[in-house]
Design a protein that fits this description.
It is built from 11 helices and 12 strands. It is of the alpha/beta class and 334 residues long. The strands form 2 sheets. Strands 1, 2, 3, 4, 5, 8, 9, 10, 11 and 12 form a 10-stranded mixed β-sheet that branches. A two-stranded antiparallel sheet has the order 6-7. Helix 5 links the parallel strand 8 and strand 9. The longest helix has 18 residues. The structure holds ligand PBG.
Amino acid sequence: MPATHVIAPYPATRLRRLRRTPAIRALTAEHALSAGNLIWPIFVTEVAGGEGEIASMPGVDRLTLDGARRAAERAATLGIPAICIFPHSDRDLKDETCARAWDPDNIGNRAIRAIKEVAPDLAVMTDIALDPYNINGHDGFVRDGIILNDETVEALVRMALAQADAGADILGPSDMMDGRIGALRAALERAGHKDVAILSYAAKYASAFYGPFRDAVGASGRLVGDKKTYQIDPANRGEALRCVARDLSEGADMVMVKPGMPYLDICREVKDQFGAPTFAYQVSGEYAMLEGAIRAGWLSRDVVAESLLSFRRAGCDGVLTYYAPQVAEALAAR
Ligand code: PBG
């Protein structure tokens, strides 16, 4: 304990004094969660009949473009500053070239424009990785079973420029290729998109907690092998910090730790060591775990706010969470 933390011995110190009433507890609360800390990830489908609830994420729907517009209006009303778009693309149009990833009219880019029409002040964040458009479900090009780094980075740059042209405010490279942040930053600068921000999925682990997400975007049956040659081994801490250092040095404006709750130690270290705006992604599997237990009656819904507050306590400036609208509504009703 630092020497500045002087504590008198009992009974001069009775720590329960400051826990006695709601007013005193409110006065001495160290952290708070507000709608302004939330980024809301949504799934937007281009598949006819693709909308509706995701089986492994009860309470979360795939949306049509109209649904995305309504979600954006809801976010704006609730004071949620940003929405993050994930495309659910047509299976029949996925291939090995992934060319639809940088098509200005792909479903992700159409959703950016649709949201900007109805909620111009809402920040729109994207995901940069080839998996929604890749026949084999990987975030990069695959040749002979190998994920190609440099060729993928070139494609990610094209994808990013298409998203920036469509009006994205924050780009979220989630691919974990080497050198992508520097390449994206240079290309954005050259293309006149100097104020488009990069929130790098810097410490992204090869996690089993992404399972329901892959159902949501229709990548589950698709993934050939696993993502362990590019995402971080859950055994590693130093490597995550090196990834964050590297991405910041290449021009990332903000960084993310993903998944969230099982990696709160990493959140704390990233914030302490780098001080940059730090986010955590409470991923699909965390949502499924909490929501499943809540719906079974095994946990009270209070776990949602508690889980999100834990990110704030761990040093995060904000959280990507599927609970964003629900939590913002509850905060507004208080
Ligand atoms: C794709 C991507 C994934 C998530 C966000 N972007 C899945 C993956 O890497 O396989 C996961 C989000 C979640 O589980 O909620 N690059």
